Amino acid sequence: MSNSSGATSGASNGGQRRRIMGVPKICWCGASISAIISKSAANPYRRYYRCAYAASHKLIDDNHTFKWVDEALLDEIERLTVRTSALEQSMSQITTETMDHQKIVFERMQMKLEKEILERVEEELLDSKSSMKKMLIAVIVGCMIMLGLSKMIG
Ligand SMILES: [Zn+2]
């Protein structure tokens, strides 16, 4: 039962070791990491990552890599959450920037459209003005004729 004692010592010494973030890929000694199932009474069937060298040499109270798989996965999730929130933040920033840009484009388009409409309206107004002028002239001429006629009659 040397494996169980190894796992137990690993568990009890976990706090003393440097905390490794996430899933360990390689031990500081250069050995690969093995996933081992704990057979200790304290943590039965709990999986842990262990330095392959330390595991094969059944080292006890060493400072080779030891990390519970669930804790490693929790780290990974935490890291992912941080990354996701950072991504969300940058995404929202991008969206706001894009929205601002779109707003500017929209405002420019609106301004252009308003200008075009104004020009069209001015053209229409000029047209109607000229026709109104003609009508006005016709009315004035008519009135003058009427006045002249009434004077002539009177
Ligand atoms: Zn090692």
UniProtKB/TrEMBL annotation:
Signal peptide: none annotated. Keywords: Membrane, Metal-binding, Transmembrane, Transmembrane helix, Zinc, Zinc-finger. The chain crosses the membrane at residues 135-153. This is GRF-type domain-containing protein. InterPro entries: Znf_GRF. Residues 27-72 form the GRF-type domain. GO terms for molecular function: zinc ion binding.
